From TrEMBL:
Alphabetized SUPFAM superfamilies for the sequence: (Trans)glycosidases
GO biological process, one term: cell wall (1->3)-beta-D-glucan biosynthetic process
Signal peptide: 1-23
Name listed for the protein in its UniProt record: 1,3-beta-glucanosyltransferase PGA4
Family: Belongs to the glycosyl hydrolase 72 family.
Keyword annotations from UniProtKB, A to Z: Disulfide bond, Glycoprotein, Signal
Keyword presence, Glycoprotein: yes
Record-level Gene Ontology MF annotations: 1,3-beta-glucanosyltransferase activity
Organism: Phytophthora citrophthora
Gene3D superfamilies: Glycosidases
Pfam family, one: Glyco_hydro_72
GO cellular component annotations of the record: plasma membrane
Protein backbone atom coordinates (compact mmCIF):
# COMPACT_ATOMS: atom_id res chain seq x y z
CA UNK A 1 0.00 0.00 0.00
CA UNK A 2 2.85 2.42 0.81
CA UNK A 3 4.47 1.70 -2.57
CA UNK A 4 1.21 2.34 -4.37
CA UNK A 5 0.78 5.66 -2.60
CA UNK A 6 4.25 6.78 -3.63
CA UNK A 7 3.60 5.85 -7.24
CA UNK A 8 0.34 7.78 -7.29
CA UNK A 9 2.05 10.80 -5.78
CA UNK A 10 4.76 10.78 -8.44
CA UNK A 11 2.15 10.36 -11.14
CA UNK A 12 0.22 13.29 -9.76
CA UNK A 13 3.32 15.47 -9.76
CA UNK A 14 4.16 14.48 -13.31
CA UNK A 15 0.62 15.28 -14.37
CA UNK A 16 1.06 18.81 -13.08
CA UNK A 17 4.32 19.46 -14.92
CA UNK A 18 2.84 20.17 -18.36
CA UNK A 19 0.53 22.80 -16.88
CA UNK A 20 2.86 24.62 -14.49
CA UNK A 21 6.32 23.83 -15.85
CA UNK A 22 9.21 25.02 -13.71
CA UNK A 23 11.27 28.16 -13.43
CA UNK A 24 12.88 27.97 -16.87
CA UNK A 25 11.36 25.45 -19.24
CA UNK A 26 13.25 24.93 -22.50
CA UNK A 27 12.21 27.46 -25.13
CA UNK A 28 11.34 26.30 -28.64
CA UNK A 29 11.14 28.02 -32.00
CA UNK A 30 8.14 27.91 -34.27
CA UNK A 31 8.37 30.11 -37.32
CA UNK A 32 9.70 33.50 -36.25
CA UNK A 33 8.58 33.20 -32.62
CA UNK A 34 9.78 31.69 -29.36
CA UNK A 35 7.48 29.61 -27.15
CA UNK A 36 7.71 27.87 -23.77
CA UNK A 37 7.94 24.16 -24.59
CA UNK A 38 5.87 23.12 -21.55
CA UNK A 39 3.26 25.82 -21.00
CA UNK A 40 3.03 26.75 -24.68
CA UNK A 41 3.12 30.45 -23.78
CA UNK A 42 4.63 32.97 -26.17
CA UNK A 43 8.13 33.98 -25.02
CA UNK A 44 9.12 37.60 -25.58
CA UNK A 45 12.78 38.39 -24.91
CA UNK A 46 13.17 41.09 -22.25
CA UNK A 47 16.88 41.06 -21.60
CA UNK A 48 20.05 42.85 -20.58
CA UNK A 49 23.63 42.48 -21.80
CA UNK A 50 25.84 41.42 -18.92
CA UNK A 51 29.54 41.99 -18.39
CA UNK A 52 30.20 42.95 -14.73
CA UNK A 53 33.58 44.60 -15.21
CA UNK A 54 34.80 46.23 -11.96
CA UNK A 55 36.18 49.76 -11.81
CA UNK A 56 39.79 48.78 -11.11
CA UNK A 57 42.14 45.93 -10.32
CA UNK A 58 43.08 42.65 -12.02
CA UNK A 59 39.52 41.97 -13.22
CA UNK A 60 39.23 45.37 -14.90
CA UNK A 61 39.68 43.77 -18.32
CA UNK A 62 37.57 42.61 -21.20
CA UNK A 63 37.22 39.00 -22.26
CA UNK A 64 37.05 37.46 -18.80
CA UNK A 65 34.68 34.65 -17.88
CA UNK A 66 33.21 36.01 -14.64
CA UNK A 67 30.36 33.49 -14.61
CA UNK A 68 32.02 30.41 -13.10
CA UNK A 69 31.41 29.00 -9.63
CA UNK A 70 34.54 30.84 -8.43
CA UNK A 71 32.90 34.21 -9.07
CA UNK A 72 29.65 33.77 -7.23
CA UNK A 73 30.45 36.92 -5.24
CA UNK A 74 30.11 38.83 -8.53
CA UNK A 75 27.16 37.30 -10.35
CA UNK A 76 25.40 36.39 -7.10
CA UNK A 77 25.33 40.10 -6.27
CA UNK A 78 23.70 40.89 -9.61
CA UNK A 79 21.17 38.08 -9.92
CA UNK A 80 18.58 39.80 -7.65
CA UNK A 81 18.92 42.91 -9.81
CA UNK A 82 17.98 40.93 -12.93
CA UNK A 83 14.91 39.64 -11.12
CA UNK A 84 13.94 43.11 -9.90
CA UNK A 85 14.36 44.44 -13.43
CA UNK A 86 11.93 41.85 -14.77
CA UNK A 87 14.53 40.53 -17.20
CA UNK A 88 14.05 37.02 -18.54
CA UNK A 89 17.27 36.88 -20.63
CA UNK A 90 20.89 37.91 -20.17
CA UNK A 91 23.44 37.90 -22.97
CA UNK A 92 27.06 36.85 -22.41
CA UNK A 93 29.91 37.91 -24.71
CA UNK A 94 32.71 35.45 -23.85
CA UNK A 95 32.79 32.21 -21.87
CA UNK A 96 35.36 29.51 -21.11
CA UNK A 97 34.19 25.94 -21.70
CA UNK A 98 36.82 24.57 -19.28
CA UNK A 99 35.36 26.06 -16.08
CA UNK A 100 32.26 25.11 -14.11
CA UNK A 101 29.18 27.29 -14.68
CA UNK A 102 26.73 25.10 -12.78
CA UNK A 103 26.00 27.49 -9.91
CA UNK A 104 25.60 30.45 -12.26
CA UNK A 105 23.27 28.69 -14.68
CA UNK A 106 21.20 27.09 -11.92
CA UNK A 107 20.95 30.38 -10.05
CA UNK A 108 19.54 31.98 -13.18
CA UNK A 109 17.27 29.03 -13.88
CA UNK A 110 15.71 29.28 -10.43
CA UNK A 111 14.72 32.86 -11.30
CA UNK A 112 13.33 31.94 -14.71
CA UNK A 113 16.19 33.68 -16.54
CA UNK A 114 17.63 32.42 -19.83
CA UNK A 115 21.03 32.99 -21.43
CA UNK A 116 22.21 33.83 -24.94
CA UNK A 117 25.75 32.46 -25.14
CA UNK A 118 28.27 33.85 -27.62
CA UNK A 119 30.55 31.15 -29.01
CA UNK A 120 33.30 33.62 -29.91
CA UNK A 121 35.76 35.70 -27.93
CA UNK A 122 38.33 38.37 -28.68
CA UNK A 123 41.40 36.13 -28.78
CA UNK A 124 43.52 34.48 -31.45
CA UNK A 125 41.66 31.64 -33.14
CA UNK A 126 38.51 32.32 -31.12
CA UNK A 127 36.37 34.18 -33.65
CA UNK A 128 35.72 35.13 -37.24
CA UNK A 129 38.51 37.50 -38.23
CA UNK A 130 38.97 40.51 -40.51
CA UNK A 131 40.63 38.36 -43.18
CA UNK A 132 38.81 37.58 -46.39
CA UNK A 133 37.02 34.27 -46.79
CA UNK A 134 37.96 31.51 -46.26
CA UNK A 135 40.95 32.55 -44.08
CA UNK A 136 38.62 34.45 -41.73
CA UNK A 137 37.40 31.16 -40.24
CA UNK A 138 40.21 29.47 -38.26
CA UNK A 139 39.71 25.77 -37.59
CA UNK A 140 40.36 26.44 -33.89
CA UNK A 141 37.13 28.42 -33.76
CA UNK A 142 35.19 25.32 -34.76
CA UNK A 143 36.73 23.39 -31.85
CA UNK A 144 35.99 26.24 -29.45
CA UNK A 145 32.37 26.50 -30.56
CA UNK A 146 31.71 22.79 -30.20
CA UNK A 147 33.23 22.70 -26.70
CA UNK A 148 31.05 25.60 -25.55
CA UNK A 149 27.96 23.96 -27.02
CA UNK A 150 28.75 20.72 -25.16
CA UNK A 151 29.14 22.69 -21.93
CA UNK A 152 26.05 24.89 -22.16
CA UNK A 153 23.46 22.91 -24.14
CA UNK A 154 23.02 20.79 -21.02
CA UNK A 155 21.17 23.60 -19.28
CA UNK A 156 17.49 24.09 -20.00
CA UNK A 157 17.79 27.87 -19.66
CA UNK A 158 20.13 28.41 -22.60
CA UNK A 159 17.92 30.27 -25.05
CA UNK A 160 20.32 30.35 -27.99
CA UNK A 161 23.92 30.28 -29.18
CA UNK A 162 25.40 33.20 -31.10
CA UNK A 163 27.97 32.38 -33.75
CA UNK A 164 29.63 35.76 -33.43
CA UNK A 165 29.20 39.42 -32.53
CA UNK A 166 29.34 42.11 -35.22
CA UNK A 167 31.80 40.47 -37.58
CA UNK A 168 30.43 42.83 -40.24
CA UNK A 169 32.39 45.59 -38.46
CA UNK A 170 35.59 43.71 -39.25
CA UNK A 171 35.79 44.10 -43.01
CA UNK A 172 38.49 46.79 -43.17
CA UNK A 173 36.34 48.91 -45.44
CA UNK A 174 35.63 46.03 -47.80
CA UNK A 175 32.07 45.01 -48.79
CA UNK A 176 29.95 42.96 -46.38
CA UNK A 177 30.73 39.86 -48.45
CA UNK A 178 34.39 40.03 -47.31
CA UNK A 179 34.06 37.74 -44.28
CA UNK A 180 30.33 36.94 -44.19
CA UNK A 181 30.84 33.47 -45.74
CA UNK A 182 33.04 32.56 -42.75
CA UNK A 183 30.29 33.49 -40.33
CA UNK A 184 27.74 31.57 -42.36
CA UNK A 185 29.96 28.49 -42.58
CA UNK A 186 30.61 28.57 -38.83
CA UNK A 187 26.87 28.63 -38.13
CA UNK A 188 26.45 25.67 -40.45
CA UNK A 189 29.22 23.72 -38.69
CA UNK A 190 27.69 24.36 -35.26
CA UNK A 191 24.24 23.30 -36.44
CA UNK A 192 25.75 20.14 -37.95
CA UNK A 193 27.51 19.34 -34.67
CA UNK A 194 24.32 19.72 -32.66
CA UNK A 195 22.38 17.63 -35.15
CA UNK A 196 25.00 14.87 -34.94
CA UNK A 197 24.61 14.61 -31.14
CA UNK A 198 21.28 13.11 -30.13
CA UNK A 199 22.22 13.52 -26.46
CA UNK A 200 22.35 17.32 -26.79
CA UNK A 201 19.37 19.64 -26.73
CA UNK A 202 18.97 21.24 -30.13
CA UNK A 203 19.53 24.83 -29.03
CA UNK A 204 19.05 27.35 -31.87
CA UNK A 205 22.25 28.68 -33.44
CA UNK A 206 22.30 32.17 -34.90
CA UNK A 207 24.44 35.29 -34.89
CA UNK A 208 24.54 38.96 -33.95
CA UNK A 209 25.30 41.67 -36.50
CA UNK A 210 25.80 45.41 -36.30
CA UNK A 211 23.11 47.44 -38.04
CA UNK A 212 24.97 48.13 -41.27
CA UNK A 213 24.12 46.78 -44.73
CA UNK A 214 20.83 45.88 -43.08
CA UNK A 215 19.11 44.29 -46.07
CA UNK A 216 22.04 42.26 -47.35
CA UNK A 217 23.04 40.83 -43.98
CA UNK A 218 19.50 39.94 -42.95
CA UNK A 219 18.76 38.14 -46.20
CA UNK A 220 22.13 36.40 -46.48
CA UNK A 221 22.02 34.72 -43.09
CA UNK A 222 18.46 33.49 -43.63
CA UNK A 223 19.11 32.14 -47.12
CA UNK A 224 20.70 28.99 -48.52
CA UNK A 225 23.33 29.42 -51.19
CA UNK A 226 22.84 25.68 -51.67
CA UNK A 227 19.04 25.23 -51.68
CA UNK A 228 19.41 21.59 -50.63
CA UNK A 229 21.48 22.38 -47.51
CA UNK A 230 18.99 22.69 -44.66
CA UNK A 231 21.71 23.61 -42.14
CA UNK A 232 23.05 26.65 -43.94
CA UNK A 233 20.70 29.35 -42.67
CA UNK A 234 20.73 30.75 -39.14
CA UNK A 235 18.00 29.66 -36.73
CA UNK A 236 17.65 33.11 -35.15
CA UNK A 237 19.00 36.54 -36.00
CA UNK A 238 20.31 39.21 -33.65
CA UNK A 239 20.86 42.83 -34.60
CA UNK A 240 22.59 45.47 -32.47
CA UNK A 241 20.71 48.63 -33.31
CA UNK A 242 20.48 52.07 -31.74
CA UNK A 243 17.66 53.80 -33.60
CA UNK A 244 15.50 55.36 -30.88
CA UNK A 245 17.49 58.33 -29.59
CA UNK A 246 14.70 60.72 -28.58
CA UNK A 247 12.35 60.77 -25.60
CA UNK A 248 9.38 59.86 -27.81
CA UNK A 249 6.64 57.77 -26.22
CA UNK A 250 4.27 57.68 -29.21
CA UNK A 251 5.25 54.71 -31.42
CA UNK A 252 3.72 56.41 -34.44
CA UNK A 253 6.38 59.13 -34.13
CA UNK A 254 9.31 56.78 -33.56
CA UNK A 255 10.71 57.19 -37.06
CA UNK A 256 13.92 55.19 -36.74
CA UNK A 257 12.27 52.33 -34.92
CA UNK A 258 9.46 52.15 -37.45
CA UNK A 259 11.94 52.10 -40.31
CA UNK A 260 13.64 49.15 -38.62
CA UNK A 261 10.31 47.36 -38.30
CA UNK A 262 9.41 48.10 -41.91
CA UNK A 263 12.73 46.66 -43.07
CA UNK A 264 12.06 43.33 -41.38
CA UNK A 265 8.45 43.41 -42.46
CA UNK A 266 9.67 43.54 -46.05
CA UNK A 267 11.97 40.54 -45.53
CA UNK A 268 9.12 38.14 -44.59
CA UNK A 269 11.55 36.57 -42.14
CA UNK A 270 11.15 32.92 -41.18
CA UNK A 271 13.25 32.96 -37.97
CA UNK A 272 13.06 34.99 -34.74
CA UNK A 273 14.70 38.43 -34.75
CA UNK A 274 16.09 39.73 -31.46
CA UNK A 275 17.33 43.29 -30.94
CA UNK A 276 20.44 42.02 -29.17
CA UNK A 277 21.67 45.50 -28.25
CA UNK A 278 19.36 48.49 -27.94
CA UNK A 279 19.23 51.60 -25.79
CA UNK A 280 20.70 54.64 -27.51
CA UNK A 281 22.49 57.10 -25.22
CA UNK A 282 21.73 60.68 -26.13
CA UNK A 283 21.60 64.12 -24.48
CA UNK A 284 18.01 64.25 -25.75
CA UNK A 285 16.94 62.11 -22.79
CA UNK A 286 16.00 63.84 -19.52
CA UNK A 287 18.03 64.56 -16.41
CA UNK A 288 16.59 62.60 -13.49
CA UNK A 289 17.71 62.90 -9.85
CA UNK A 290 20.91 64.62 -10.95
CA UNK A 291 21.82 62.06 -13.63
CA UNK A 292 21.90 63.40 -17.17
CA UNK A 293 20.56 61.64 -20.28
CA UNK A 294 18.55 58.93 -18.56
CA UNK A 295 17.11 56.63 -21.22
CA UNK A 296 13.33 56.28 -20.94
CA UNK A 297 13.26 52.97 -22.87
CA UNK A 298 10.06 53.57 -24.81
CA UNK A 299 11.60 51.38 -27.52
CA UNK A 300 11.60 48.46 -25.06
CA UNK A 301 7.84 48.84 -24.90
CA UNK A 302 7.40 49.28 -28.65
CA UNK A 303 9.20 46.09 -29.65
CA UNK A 304 6.83 43.87 -27.68
CA UNK A 305 3.62 45.57 -28.81
CA UNK A 306 1.41 43.49 -31.15
CA UNK A 307 2.15 45.71 -34.16
CA UNK A 308 5.86 44.98 -33.74
CA UNK A 309 5.93 41.45 -32.32
CA UNK A 310 5.13 39.98 -35.73
CA UNK A 311 8.67 41.01 -36.68
CA UNK A 312 10.67 41.19 -33.43
CA UNK A 313 10.93 38.56 -30.69
CA UNK A 314 12.05 41.14 -28.13
CA UNK A 315 15.35 42.72 -27.20
CA UNK A 316 18.35 42.88 -24.89
CA UNK A 317 19.20 46.30 -23.44
CA UNK A 318 22.81 47.47 -23.49
CA UNK A 319 24.07 47.17 -20.79
CA UNK A 320 23.84 46.18 -17.13
CA UNK A 321 26.68 48.31 -15.74
CA UNK A 322 28.63 51.27 -17.06
CA UNK A 323 32.23 50.23 -17.61
CA UNK A 324 34.49 52.73 -15.92
CA UNK A 325 37.38 52.03 -18.30
CA UNK A 326 35.25 52.98 -21.30
CA UNK A 327 33.30 55.87 -19.81
CA UNK A 328 35.84 57.74 -17.66
CA UNK A 329 37.12 59.95 -20.49
CA UNK A 330 33.71 61.46 -21.27
CA UNK A 331 31.61 60.73 -18.18
CA UNK A 332 33.70 60.06 -15.08
CA UNK A 333 32.65 58.31 -11.88
CA UNK A 334 29.94 58.52 -10.55
CA UNK A 335 28.74 59.01 -14.13
CA UNK A 336 26.24 61.80 -13.48
CA UNK A 337 26.96 63.53 -16.80
CA UNK A 338 26.09 62.46 -20.31
CA UNK A 339 28.78 60.45 -22.07
CA UNK A 340 28.72 58.35 -25.25
CA UNK A 341 29.93 55.27 -23.33
CA UNK A 342 27.72 55.68 -20.26
CA UNK A 343 25.43 52.79 -21.21
CA UNK A 344 24.76 51.26 -17.82
CA UNK A 345 21.50 50.62 -16.03
CA UNK A 346 23.72 51.31 -13.04
CA UNK A 347 27.33 51.47 -11.94
CA UNK A 348 29.68 49.91 -9.41
CA UNK A 349 30.92 51.61 -6.26
CA UNK A 350 33.25 52.52 -4.67
CA UNK A 351 35.29 54.10 -7.42
CA UNK A 352 38.29 51.83 -6.78
CA UNK A 353 36.35 48.58 -6.30
CA UNK A 354 38.03 45.51 -7.76
CA UNK A 355 35.86 42.49 -6.86
CA UNK A 356 39.22 40.94 -5.99
CA UNK A 357 39.69 42.34 -2.50
CA UNK A 358 37.32 45.30 -2.51
CA UNK A 359 33.87 44.13 -3.51
CA UNK A 360 31.78 46.26 -5.81
CA UNK A 361 28.22 47.31 -5.00
CA UNK A 362 25.70 47.93 -7.77
CA UNK A 363 24.06 51.36 -7.75
CA UNK A 364 21.05 51.85 -9.97
CA UNK A 365 20.70 54.75 -12.36
CA UNK A 366 17.17 56.16 -12.83
CA UNK A 367 17.04 54.49 -16.25
CA UNK A 368 17.01 51.10 -14.46
CA UNK A 369 13.56 51.95 -13.17
CA UNK A 370 12.35 53.11 -16.57
CA UNK A 371 13.29 49.75 -18.08
CA UNK A 372 11.92 47.90 -15.05
CA UNK A 373 8.55 49.58 -15.54
CA UNK A 374 8.41 48.32 -19.12
CA UNK A 375 9.63 44.80 -18.43
CA UNK A 376 7.50 44.13 -15.35
CA UNK A 377 4.30 45.46 -16.94
CA UNK A 378 4.59 43.34 -20.09
CA UNK A 379 1.37 41.51 -20.98
CA UNK A 380 1.48 38.67 -23.51
CA UNK A 381 -2.23 37.88 -23.38
CA UNK A 382 -2.77 39.18 -26.92
CA UNK A 383 -0.08 36.91 -28.36
CA UNK A 384 -0.86 33.45 -29.74
CA UNK A 385 0.06 30.32 -27.81
CA UNK A 386 2.03 27.47 -29.31
CA UNK A 387 -1.08 25.32 -29.63
CA UNK A 388 -2.95 27.80 -31.81
CA UNK A 389 -0.12 29.49 -33.68
CA UNK A 390 0.03 28.73 -37.37
CA UNK A 391 3.09 29.98 -39.24
CA UNK A 392 1.83 32.64 -41.67
CA UNK A 393 2.68 31.89 -45.31
CA UNK A 394 4.86 35.01 -45.51
CA UNK A 395 6.99 33.73 -42.59
CA UNK A 396 7.23 30.15 -43.82
CA UNK A 397 10.20 30.21 -46.20
CA UNK A 398 13.88 31.02 -46.00
CA UNK A 399 14.96 34.21 -47.77
CA UNK A 400 16.24 34.57 -51.29
CA UNK A 401 19.96 35.26 -51.22
CA UNK A 402 20.88 38.86 -52.08
CA UNK A 403 22.68 39.57 -55.33
CA UNK A 404 26.37 38.72 -55.20
CA UNK A 405 26.04 36.36 -52.24
CA UNK A 406 29.10 34.10 -51.98
CA UNK A 407 28.21 30.41 -52.03
CA UNK A 408 29.80 28.38 -49.25
CA UNK A 409 30.71 25.68 -51.76
CA UNK A 410 32.98 28.12 -53.61
CA UNK A 411 35.57 28.00 -50.81
CA UNK A 412 37.81 25.31 -49.33
CA UNK A 413 37.31 25.35 -45.58
CA UNK A 414 39.94 24.32 -43.04
CA UNK A 415 37.15 23.36 -40.67
CA UNK A 416 36.06 20.55 -42.99
CA UNK A 417 39.31 18.68 -42.35
CA UNK A 418 39.58 19.40 -38.62
CA UNK A 419 38.34 16.74 -36.18
CA UNK A 420 35.15 17.50 -34.33
CA UNK A 421 34.28 17.09 -30.67
CA UNK A 422 32.88 13.78 -29.52
CA UNK A 423 29.23 13.85 -28.54
CA UNK A 424 28.57 13.50 -24.81
CA UNK A 425 27.15 10.32 -23.38
CA UNK A 426 23.48 10.22 -22.55
CA UNK A 427 24.27 11.15 -18.95
CA UNK A 428 26.66 13.92 -19.94
CA UNK A 429 24.28 15.66 -22.31
CA UNK A 430 21.87 16.90 -19.69
CA UNK A 431 21.98 18.57 -16.31
CA UNK A 432 19.13 19.04 -13.87
CA UNK A 433 19.54 21.85 -11.37
CA UNK A 434 18.53 21.01 -7.83
CA UNK A 435 15.69 22.88 -6.21
CA UNK A 436 16.69 26.05 -4.40
CA UNK A 437 15.02 29.00 -2.78
CA UNK A 438 13.90 31.55 -5.32
CA UNK A 439 11.40 34.30 -5.78
CA UNK A 440 9.83 32.07 -8.43
CA UNK A 441 10.94 28.66 -7.25
CA UNK A 442 9.25 25.63 -8.77
CA UNK A 443 10.49 22.04 -8.60
CA UNK A 444 12.42 20.86 -11.67
CA UNK A 445 10.82 18.44 -14.07
CA UNK A 446 11.01 14.77 -13.20
CA UNK A 447 11.33 13.71 -16.81
CA UNK A 448 13.39 14.90 -19.78
CA UNK A 449 11.68 17.80 -21.52
CA UNK A 450 11.14 17.98 -25.26
CA UNK A 451 12.60 20.73 -27.38
CA UNK A 452 10.89 21.34 -30.67
CA UNK A 453 11.99 23.45 -33.57
CA UNK A 454 9.14 23.86 -36.00
CA UNK A 455 10.37 25.85 -38.96
CA UNK A 456 8.64 25.65 -42.29
CA UNK A 457 10.80 26.23 -45.35
CA UNK A 458 10.11 26.87 -48.95
CA UNK A 459 10.91 23.35 -50.07
CA UNK A 460 10.55 21.10 -47.05
CA UNK A 461 7.62 20.20 -44.79
CA UNK A 462 7.57 21.37 -41.21
CA UNK A 463 9.74 19.00 -39.14
CA UNK A 464 8.22 16.83 -36.47
CA UNK A 465 9.25 17.10 -32.83
CA UNK A 466 12.90 16.34 -32.12
CA UNK A 467 13.76 14.94 -28.73
CA UNK A 468 16.25 16.96 -26.75
CA UNK A 469 17.46 16.66 -23.23
CA UNK A 470 18.00 19.44 -20.72
CA UNK A 471 21.67 20.10 -19.65
CA UNK A 472 27.80 20.84 -15.32
CA UNK A 473 31.54 23.05 -15.72
CA UNK A 474 38.76 31.57 -11.82
CA UNK A 475 38.64 34.91 -13.69
CA UNK A 476 39.98 33.21 -16.71
CA UNK A 477 41.37 35.43 -19.40
CA UNK A 478 40.93 33.65 -22.69
CA UNK A 479 44.30 32.67 -24.14
CA UNK A 480 46.11 35.43 -26.06
CA UNK A 481 43.25 37.78 -25.30
CA UNK A 482 43.28 41.36 -26.44
CA UNK A 483 41.13 44.28 -25.29
CA UNK A 484 37.75 44.52 -26.97
CA UNK A 485 37.31 47.20 -29.58
CA UNK A 486 34.47 49.53 -28.78
CA UNK A 487 32.14 50.93 -31.41
CA UNK A 488 29.49 53.11 -29.87
CA UNK A 489 27.88 50.85 -27.31
CA UNK A 490 28.84 47.67 -29.08
CA UNK A 491 31.39 45.24 -27.78
CA UNK A 492 33.10 43.93 -30.87
CA UNK A 493 34.56 40.83 -29.31
Amino acid sequence: MRLQTVILTIAAIQALIPSIGYAANPIIVKGNRFFDSITGDYFAVRGVNYYPRPNAGPLDLNNLDLFSNDFQHIWGRDLPQFTALGANVIRLYAVDSEVDHTDFMCGLQAEGIYVIVDLGANCKGCEITADSAPACYPASYKARGEKIIKEFARYDNVLAFSGGNEINHRTGGNPWTWNAPCQKKFIRDMRAFLQSCPTLRQVPVGLVVADTDRDDNALYYNCRTDPSDELENAQWYGINTYVHCEDISDPAKATGFNMLRDSFKSYDYSIPVVLTEFGCVSPNFPTVDGYEAQRTFHDAKFMNMPEYSDYFAGGVAFEYSTENANSMATSAYPFTTYGPQNYGLGYFSPEDCTDAGTNCTFQRFPNFDFLKEVYTSYDSSSEPALSNYEIPPNHAATSNCPAGSPALSSFQWLSDSSPGEACPSSSGGQFQCTSRESTVAVEPSLTPLPFVMLVATDDTPTPTEDEITPTPTTAILVENSQPFTEHGGCRLG
